[in-house]
Amino acid sequence: MFCVIQKIQKKKQDPYGTRKEIIVSETTFGFAGEEPKTSYSYTYSDERFERPILDAYKISIHHSYREKGEVKKKQWVICTMSYYDFIDSWYGDHYVNQTLKEKLNEMGIDEDTFHELINAKLEPLIEQIELEFQQTEEYRVKKEQEAILKAHREAEVAFEKEYGPGEYRYCYDVFGTLRNPAYLEELKVKKKVQEEYRRRSYEESFKRNYNNYSSGDGSSYSTASTSNYNEDEKKMLHEIYRMASKKFHPDACGDDGSKMKLLTKLKDQWGL
Predict the structure, then answer these.
(1) Which residues contact 78 (CB under 8 A, 6 or more apart)?
(2) Any domain includes 29
(3) Parallel, antiparallel, or unpaired: how do β-strands 37-44 and 70-82 relate?
(4) Does 7 share its domain with 83?
(5) Cα dihedral: 87, 92, 95, 100 (round 10)
(6) 263: domain range?
(7) Helix (H) or strand (E) segment spanning residue 130
(8) How far is CA 170 from the centre of its chain?
(9) Residue 1 in contact with residue 62, Cβ under 8 Å?
(10) What is the residue-level pLDDT of the chain in tens, covering all 272 positions?
(11) What whole-number distance in Å separates Cα of residue 202 and Cα of residue 189?
């Protein structure tokens, strides 16, 4: 069993060459009571590159066998691909899966074996077509367009990470040209205000927590007036205080008495 690639000729050119240009498109809209905004997107020109090569290739699997002393042949046509199909797609896109399964059953081979037979025959042809295509003006423009769109996506992601989703298109076009500097300045001011608001909120929250801690509210230690320790817990705390006071007494640890002062403060907060 083997794969056969038969070269044939089409009557018409492939009409779907790469479009020649990326074009900036604009859409202006606004909600009631708001100033309209213009969004910058992109489209492609109607003009396409011509694809003059009319070569096409019929792909089939052949099987030769003997029956009653005679050589017989069977063949299964898989698909037909034009020259430019090899640039734009994979041969697997050109056949129906259900039909292929039926043919594989008739052939008596699995799908892996089938692809091995096809690829062994197709790879040199695909390599040749790709090398030829890379010498064309269409290929050069196609790669330029891919680079433009890749840079556009990366710039959009970075910008929207800083200024919010959907905002890039109101400032820049697909080529990275700043179209609305006034709106960009609005975004910068908005971001600065938000950062200042977050900074102040953090500072105020920190001050509240600090004050609550200093006054005993929010601390795990309660003052004597608000102590909710039961008698058993107070006995345990008293034992902790007694043992700690021996360790942190100025005569024992040799400090200036600050540790003992803190321990005495804790004793008052525990309500002992």
Answers:
(1) 59, 60, 61, 91, 95, 100, 103, 118
(2) no
(3) unpaired
(4) yes
(5) 160
(6) 231-270
(7) helix 111-133
(8) 22
(9) yes
(10) 999 999 999 999 999 999 999 999 999 988 777 788 999 999 999 999 999 999 999 999 999 988 888 888 999 999 999 999 999 999 999 999 999 999 999 999 999 999 999 999 999 999 999 999 999 999 999 999 999 999 999 999 999 999 999 999 999 999 999 999 999 999 999 999 888 888 888 877 777 776 666 655 544 444 444 566 777 777 778 878 777 777 777 777 677 777 778 878 887 777 77
(11) 20
Does the predicted model carry a pTM greater than 0.85?
Answer: no
What is the gyration radius of the CA atoms in the chain, in angstroms?
A: 39
Based on the domain organization, do 254 and 155 belong to the same domain? no
Do 56 and 100 reside in the same domain of the chain?
A: yes
Name residue, tokens 């200093």: 214
- Helix 97-107 with 111-133: angle, nearest 10 deg: 120
Domain count, the chain: 3
Is residue 197 domain-resident?
no
10 plus 122 within the same structural domain: yes
Residues 155 and 116 in one domain: no
CA angle 169, 26, 45 (to 5 degrees): 110
Q: Is residue 254 part of a domain?
A: yes
